[in-house]
Automatic annotation (TrEMBL):
The keyword Ribosomal protein does not apply. This is Putative fanconi anemia group a protein. Residues 19-102 form the Fanconi anaemia group A protein N-terminal domain. InterPro entries: FANCA (IPR003516), Fanconi_A_N (IPR031729). It holds the Pfam family Fanconi_A_N. GO terms for biological process: interstrand cross-link repair. GO terms for cellular component: Fanconi anaemia nuclear complex.
Length: 107
């Protein structure tokens, strides 16, 4: 099951308390950013130009879009900061998310 298949209805017509939806979204974003962190920083620096939202899988982009509908700019920044400080990250996913976030935020 794709993340957007259950996020879309929750965002469109929340059946949960907004605080619960918010907490779930923060936790989900943190989990996605840290899933399977096999790429090292050196590899990420070498390949970062390939990891943009335009090359991101459609379901992952849709999931990120739904996350960004729920979270404010400061909250996204806080999740990114805490995730980077606490644990290893999946650089491919993180850089794809940042690319989408920055592009979306500047439109």
């Amino acid at each position: 099951m794709c993340c957007t298949s259950f996020l879309s209805p929750l965002v469109a017509t929340p059946i949960l308390d907004l605080a619960v939806l918010h907490a779930f979204t923060v936790e989900m974003l943190s989990c996605v950013l840290t899933y399977n962190p096999v790429i090292k920083v050196v590899q990420a620096i070498a390949n970062h130009h390939q990891w943009t939202y335009s090359r991101c899988s459609p379901w992952l982009c849709q999931t990120f879009e739904k996350v960004l509908e729920v979270l404010k700019t400061e909250e996204v920044r806080d999740v990114l900061q805490k995730t980077l400080q606490r644990q290893d990250v999946n650089w491919h996913i993180l850089l794809s998310f940042v690319s989408l976030y920055v592009t979306r935020d500047t439109k």
